[in-house]
Amino acid sequence: MNTSASSSSVTGDFTLRRATPEDCVLINRLASDVWYHTYLGIHTREQLEYMFEKMYHPDVLARQMKSGQLFFIGYREHAPMGYICIEQQEAHFFYLHKLYVLPAFQGTGAGKFLFEAAVNQITEIHPDKCIMELNVNRQNKAIRFYEKMGMTIVRENDEEIGEGFVMNNCFMRLEIKGNR
Asked: What is the pTM of this model?
């Protein structure tokens, strides 16, 4: 799998930089600023704390990077505003693991910028037609955002994640045309 991707790009007020293992603490901090704002009405505090530790501890993030997940940090006027994480899982299949925008930057076009950046990075890695999927909690209002970006719901899943906690997700898909 080709994991080369641009180290940075610029669109309007926003810039994107590929994260390195040295950025794991920054990504952890950004995630903590977004996590409870996004999910506290959906999950209990206990479940959020459990999930956060499993997904966003800096050591976990470093292992994800080492395993081939590509993280990018978005900036607006030199201030971090969010991040994305993509992974090529099969020849023509990519997974968007993470797309989060800090609350202060929501409604500014930052989410659209990060989504388009994920698609652009995938197209750079894989210029042919491919699929990008993500999962999102069925109660998360971000579903409407992803639908506006052209994604469609393809299936639902209830998954036990440990400690008696359950994720109620829908999986969304985008067919990327490629640039060839």
From this structure: 0.91
The two structure tokens encoding residue 66: 């080492």
pLDDT tens profile 9-51: 656 699 999 999 999 999 999 999 998 888 888 888 898 899 8
- Cα–Cα distance measured from residue 169 to residue 166, given in angstroms and rounded to the nearest whole number: 9
- Cα(48)–Cα(92) distance, rounded to whole angstroms? 32
Task: Return the higher-pLDDT residue of 165 and 84.
Answer: 84
Q: How would residue 7 be classed by pLDDT, with cut points 50, 70 and 90?
A: low
Contacts by residues 138-143 (CB-CB < 8 Å, ≥ 24 positions apart):
138/168, 138/169, 138/170, 139/41, 139/42, 139/168, 140/38, 140/39, 140/42, 142/38, 143/170, 143/172
Write out the DSSP string of 69-95. Answer: -EEEEEEETTEEEEEEEEEEEETTEEE
The CA angle 170-129-157, to the nearest 5 degrees, is 10
Quick one: which of 96, 70, 75, 61 has its CA closest to 14?
A: 75
